[in-house]
Amino acid sequence: MFGIVAIIAGAAAPAFSNLLLDSRMNAALTTTMHAVNLARQFSATRSEAIQLCGSDDELACTGRSDWSTGLLLADRAELFRRSLPLSGGSGAPQIRSNRAIINFEGDSGFASPATLTVCDRRGSPAARAVIISRSGRPRISERDASDRALAC
């Protein structure tokens, strides 16, 4: 009897592990998309430039390409700030940007084109990207903006 339970539990563990990783990946992608859409919206409604960047302390941009600890929206005068912490810890996806700061221009509606790659322990085959166009619109993709495979 215990042998059958052990076999069933052993077979189910990988499926639950992948389900958990998928859930964490979706949460990271949703938070990233939300941050991009907020930056775009605030830039348009306030008619001023808004920056989106990675932040360790929810107060300032890190200036690094690793955005895994949190996202920060701020105006250039740093009078406006909105932080979006990401769930860290073991198994949390890593977010890397090809830019240290993504700028959303308030007057023209343009943004810095960028790619934010979200990876977990499954590596490149499970990676997803949030690609931000020049108009500031984000989209989720399994490939980069040049239609190449993502690299973690």
Question: Care to describe what's here?
Answer:
This protein is α+β, with helices and mostly antiparallel strands and 152 residues long. It has one domain (2-141): minor pseudopilin epsh domain (minor pseudopilin epsh fold, 3-Layer(bab) Sandwich), CATH 3.55.40. The chain is 30% helix and 26% strand. It has 1 helix and 8 strands, in the order H-E-E-E-E-E-E-E-E. It has a 4-stranded antiparallel sheet, covered by helices on one side. It has a 4-stranded antiparallel sheet with strand order 4-6-7-8, with helices on one face. The longest helix is centred in the first third of the chain and has 45 residues, at 2-46. It is globular and about 65 Å long. The N and C termini lie far apart (43 Å). The mean pLDDT is 88.
Note the topology.
Layout: H1 2-46, E1 50-54, E2 70-75, E3 81-85, E4 94-97, E5 101-104, E6 114-119, E7 128-132, E8 138-141
Antiparallel strand pairs: 1-2, 1-5, 2-3, 4-6, 6-7, 7-8
